[in-house]
Write a structure and sequence with these properties.
9 strands; alpha/beta; 7-stranded parallel beta sheet; globular; Rossmann fold; two-stranded parallel ribbon
């Protein structure tokens, strides 16, 4: 079974849309261990379910769900809570699984732990979601280097949105990584639009996830 941890170079880089793409392409199960921002948008945790159209059986509840749209440690503190990694356990499922993180790899979970600690615990190959625009080279290479320093396996990178091909080649060369996919920025995004794009690229997606 293919199981991947989805991280990004920073917040709002496209992790959730890419997670929906991979969930659709693999007919996978999906889990976001820690969710924030529910006060701003109560549907925040349902984006992948909405985009895929899959029923509830494909989705596992978050171990933590916080109201404030802040860094996880800050959002937890506002609710007088502390994230305990012992409560964040991979769903026991014999099926493809997409696990989506929040923010970037250094995103704090509590006063001592970051997403590095959760990735080490889960021990899943990591897919990094990168922007394709100006600034992506530095952010992407720093993320790649930080993961490698901690012996966290990188399966590859996926570019989200506009893509500068020269930047892509530079990241591949200097980071010694492969590009799995480029998910474009959709002018409008709906379940039908996303499904058509995934259907049109299904064979390529599955081949590159090998």
């Amino acid at each position: 079974m293919k199981k991947f941890f989805i991280t990004g170079t920073d917040t709002n880089v496209g992790k959730t849309v890419v997670s929906a793409v991979l969930t659709l392409a693999l007919n996978a199960y999906y889990w976001k261990p820690i969710q924030t921002g529910l006060a701003q948008d109560p549907r925040e945790g349902d984006t992948v379910r909405s985009l895929t159209g899959f029923d509830q059986t494909h989705f596992f509840p978050s171990a933590y769900a916080f109201q404030a749209g802040l860094a996880i440690d800050q959002a937890a503190r506002l609710e007088n809570k502390t994230v305990d990694l012992a409560r964040c356990n991979l769903p026991d499922v014999e099926h493809h699984l997409i696990v989506e993180g929040a923010g970037g790899v250094f995103h704090p979970l509590n006063t001592t732990a970051t997403f590095f600690d959760l990735m080490k615990k889960f021990n899943l190959p990591v897919i990094i979601i990168c922007r394709g625009t100006v600034g992506t080279i530095n952010h992407s290479l720093l993320t790649i280097d930080a993961l490698r320093q901690r012996d966290i396996a990188i399966h590859g990178i996926i570019f989200s949105g506009e893509l500068n091909s020269d930047s892509q080649l530079t990241i591949e060369r200097l980071g010694n990584v492969r590009t799995l996919l480029h998910v474009p920025r959709f002018k409008s995004l709906s379940p039908s639009i996303l499904k058509k794009w995934v259907d049109d690229n299904q064979s390529d997606i599955l081949e590159r996830l090998q």
